[in-house]
From TrEMBL:
Transmembrane segment boundaries: 12-36
Organism encoding this protein: Streptomyces roseoviridis
Domain TadE-like stretches: 6-48
Protein name: TadE/TadG family type IV pilus assembly protein
InterPro entries referenced in this protein's UniProt entry, alphabetically: TadE-like_dom
């Protein structure tokens, strides 16, 4: 009769690359989702600041973490009594601050102008 000693270790070593790849893909999905959350929140804050006449670009960047703030593009045009904020962020690959994906994540928000009449 043949012994099965070490079979579990061999199977684990064979599955380890698949397990690691799954964890890396899940982590990348978390980073993409977090980037969407950051972009939306920064756009909300920028629109609120722009609605009362404050610097919306600074308000949008203030609510971003370091790695995301460095490549952020915040714009806040006003039209028709509304301030519309758009925040574009780069999605990091595995580690924030290293390499970014070639696509941007966009967050948009709007608020009614509440400042003095212009």
């Amino acid at each position: 009769m043949r012994e099965d000693g070490g079979q579990v270790a061999v199977e684990f070593v064979g599955m380890l690359p698949l397990i690691l790849l799954t964890l890396v893909l899940l982590w990348q999905c978390v980073l993409i989702g977090y980037t969407y959350t950051l972009a939306g929140n920064a756009a909300d804050e920028a629109a609120r600041a722009g609605a009362v006449g404050d610097d919306c670009g600074a308000a949008g960047r203030r609510h971003l973490d370091g790695a995301w703030a460095s490549g952020a593009a915040v714009s806040c045009p006003e039209s028709g009594g509304m301030v519309r904020a758009t925040v574009r962020l780069r999605v990091p690959v595995l580690f924030p601050g290293a390499v970014s994906h070639p696509f941007d994540v966009t967050g948009e928000a709007a608020a009614v102008w509440e400042g003095d009449d212009r």
